[in-house]
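User: structure tokens for this one?
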Amino acid sequence: MRQPATIKRVSAADLLATAPPAGPDAGSPLVAVIGGLYLAVYLWRWISCRRDPKTRSPGVGRLIAFAAGCGLMALALGPPLDRWAEQSATVHMVQHVVLLDLIPILLFAGLTKAMLRPITKRLHGVEAKVGFLALPAFAVVAYCGLMYAWHVPALYNQALKNSSVHALEHMTLLAAGILYWWHLMSPVRVRYHLAGTGPVLYMATTKILVGILGIVLIFSPSSLYAYTGSFMGMDPLTDQHVAGTVMATEQTLVMGIAFAVLFLKMLADSERRQLQEDVAAEAPSRA
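Assistant:
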């Protein structure tokens, strides 16, 4: 009878000692260049808005958020994490959740309506032309569908073996994350606006579906992916269980924080509407 997997207790020094060397990564310079270009364009627009007296200046916090998003992109896709991801399901999972959630959240947190003003009409034009691709429902399908698809063993293992497939995996997950969070965090009004309880249903549906995948990985009795040997004291099955825990935990935390933010936003919107109604009601009596 197969013995249940156990997590070996190791010290921090043991973890660092057993971690494989980062080694050279051919894709890391490209990641750094792309991140640098994004940040340079953003910084130019941020300074322009700050100098324009007719524009509401974006705060330093916006700059820090966007820079953190670019930096996290370079960290997640560059050495040593990218090379470790080829040897550990846990590190690979960290990459996935960072690309789907953390990077898009930070990038959108750095944007304002004024900063996007030069391209707002183009964005609305693109939304009109792509049809159903601009629907929030499609963003949910893309987010969940790609996450499930890339965790099918055949595709997952192919990404481990082929650097081009691995790069495609990262590109599609990041694109899905940006599309998904666009409907929640876009500083400009989108064509299909989520109103009322829409954002809550949008978030809950996605996070619950992806969280189920994490639970499947946690309780899988056998290793699904082509990892061999141990990584930081974990055998492949234990590594997979930890990866599933990372996925389920991250989805739960993001959903909880997002619900809190959405609730506060709904309260603020309700108070603003009430204030506008009170002002409108008092206007005739003053006249």
